[in-house]
Write a structure and sequence with these properties.
The protein is mainly α. It has seven helices and five strands.
Length: about 200
C-alpha cells in the first residue's frame, strides 16, 4: 500500500508527514492547568479558492457526488458475469482500479467545502488527491476494457450478452464520471498566498 500512499496522498503515512514537515513549527505553551505542552503552528503558504463561494461549492459537491457514482459503477461492472469475467488480463487491471477508487472517495471527504484558505497538505489531500486518483482509475479501467476488446478481436467473438452490455455500461458510466470530475476540479481557480496573508487562520 505504500505505493498508493505516495501516489494519492494518504495523510497518515510517515512519508506524507515528512513531505510537509517544513510547513510547520513547534512551540511550547502553558495550558489552563499550568502544564507545558507542545503544539504545531502552520508556517507554510496558504492555498486560496479565488472563485465566488457558491460556484466553487457547487463544483466540489458535484465532484464528490460523481466520485461516489464512479466508484459504484466500477464495482457494478466488476460484479457482472460477462465473456471475460474469468480472464486475468481483463480483471486484474479492473480490480487494481479499486484502490485508486477508494482514495478517490477519501479525497471527496477531504474537499474544502467550508475551509478557505487551506494549508498545503489540506489542498493535496482533497483536490489533488481526487485528480490523481481519477487519472489512475481511468488508466487501470481503460487497460481492462481495452484488453476485453483485443481478446474479442483475437477470438472474433462479437456476441454481446446482457452481462457484457452491463459490464460495458458500468465501465462507461465510471469513465464519464471520472472525466467530469477532472473537468470540474480543473476549473477551480486557486492561488497561493504567503503565510502572513492570513494571520488569524
Amino acid at each position: 500500500m505504500a505505493f498508493f500512499d505516495n501516489l494519492f496522498g494518504k495523510g497518515k503515512s510517515f512519508s506524507d508527514r515528512m513531505r510537509y514537515v517544513n510547513d510547520f513549527k513547534t512551540e511550547e505553551y502553558r495550558n489552563a492547568r499550568g502544564k507545558i505542552r507542545t503544539r504545531a503552528i502552520y508556517i507554510g503558504p496558504w492555498t486560496v479558492l479565488t472563485e465566488p463561494g457558491g460556484k466553487t461549492l457547487a463544483k466540489l459537491i458535484g465532484a464528490a457526488v460523481l466520485a461516489g457514482a464512479a466508484a459504484a459503477s466500477l464495482v457494478y461492472a466488476l460484479l457482472q458475469m460477462h465473456a471475460f469475467s474469468g480472464n486475468l488480463l481483463v480483471m486484474i487491471p479492473l480490480c487494481v482500479a479499486l484502490f485508486p477508487a477508494f482514495y478517490l472517495l477519501m479525497g471527496a471527504f477531504s474537499l474544502p467545502y467550508r475551509q478557505n484558505p487551506m494549508r498545503r497538505d489540506q489542498y493535496m489531500h482533497g483536490i489533488t488527491r481526487m485528480q490523481r486518483s481519477s487519472v489512475a482509475v481511468l488508466a487501470f479501467a481503460g487497460v481492462g476494457v481495452l484488453a476485453s476488446f483485443i481478446l474479442r478481436m483475437v477470438r472474433n467473438d462479437w456476441l454481446f450478452l446482457k452481462g457484457d452490455i452491463r459490464f460495458l455500461v458500468g465501465c462507461g458510466v465510471s469513465v464519464l464520471c471520472l472525466a467530469a470530475i477532472l473537468s470540474l476540479l480543473g476549473h477551480i481557480d486557486v492561488a497561493e498566498r504567503p503565510n502572513d496573508a492570513y494571520p488569524n487562520s
